[in-house]
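Tokens for chain A. Residues wanted.
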């Protein structure tokens, strides 16, 4: 079944939770899509997980477009969403619209995501027919302004995040990521909204969950508290590489089986 933004709304109405994973390349996109993951997020987390930057801020729109092309061309059923990177939408609604149009035309993704309560930007994109996913709570592009990797929405900050979510829904977003917010706040927001919420470090009452795929697969050297490691691919790849090296040293690879006569 081809997943569309309306499909996610239907899931919420039916009480059916759905899954989201990041993807930046053809191989993972094919695998996750075939496994039934409903949404693939071409996350700006590629900045640090793929490009070895310190955080998400350095990645450019052109770099994101390259990743987006690979994922959109490889997914058959999943809804593919692309992060608009830092610096590509904050200045004005016009800048956001130009960036989003470029991203949509060049990648073939179905939607874009932007961080914070950028209401005018969201309205402009939705008005132009571009589906928008919101993102509140801890927003990695604002890590310096937020004073580091901290849970957002505790105490007096809870009401501000709640109001942001209502405003983002009203502006036309089709879903909202809630990152590193208290579980009770995420539950309250999820009940208040008609659009789906996607949690990451926000408890299990949200309509969906998202993980960075390298955390999920155990490739990352450090796994965040809110992530669950479903396998240890880092260890398995390391062991396989050692075995490969050892067989070359011993002369057992390539064997007759891998050779031509």
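Reply:
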């Amino acid at each position: 079944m081809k997943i569309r933004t309306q499909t996610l709304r239907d899931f919420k109405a039916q009480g059916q939770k759905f899954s989201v994973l990041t993807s930046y390349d053809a191989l993972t996109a094919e695998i996750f899509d075939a496994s039934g993951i409903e949404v693939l997020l071409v996350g700006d987390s590629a900045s640090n997980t793929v490009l070895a930057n310190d955080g998400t801020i350095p990645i450019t729109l052109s770099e994101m477009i390259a990743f987006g092309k690979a994922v959109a061309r490889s997914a058959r059923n999943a809804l593919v969403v692309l992060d608009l990177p830092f610096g590509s939408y904050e200045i004005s609604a016009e800048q956001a619209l130009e960036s989003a149009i470029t991203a949509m035309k060049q990648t073939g993704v179905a939607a874009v995501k932007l961080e914070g309560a950028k209401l005018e930007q969201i309205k402009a994109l939705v008005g132009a027919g571009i589906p928008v996913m919101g993102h509140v709570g801890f927003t990695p592009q604002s890590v310096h302004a937020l004073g580091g990797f901290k849970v957002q929405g505790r105490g007096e900050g809870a009401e501000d995040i709640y109001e942001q979510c209502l405003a983002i829904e009203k502006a036309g977003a089709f879903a909202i990521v809630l990152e590193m917010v208290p579980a009770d706040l995420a539950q309250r927001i999820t009940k208040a909204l008609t659009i789906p919420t996607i949690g990451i470090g926000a408890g299990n009452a949200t309509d969906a969950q998202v993980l960075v795929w390298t955390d999920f697969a155990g490739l990352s050297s450090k796994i965040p508290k809110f992530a669950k490691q479903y396998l240890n691919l880092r260890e398995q790849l390391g062991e396989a590489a050692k075995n490969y090296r050892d067989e070359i040293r011993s002369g057992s690879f390539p064997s007759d089986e891998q050779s031509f006569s």
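Residues 66 and 206 are 31 Å apart (CA to CA). The mean pLDDT is 96.
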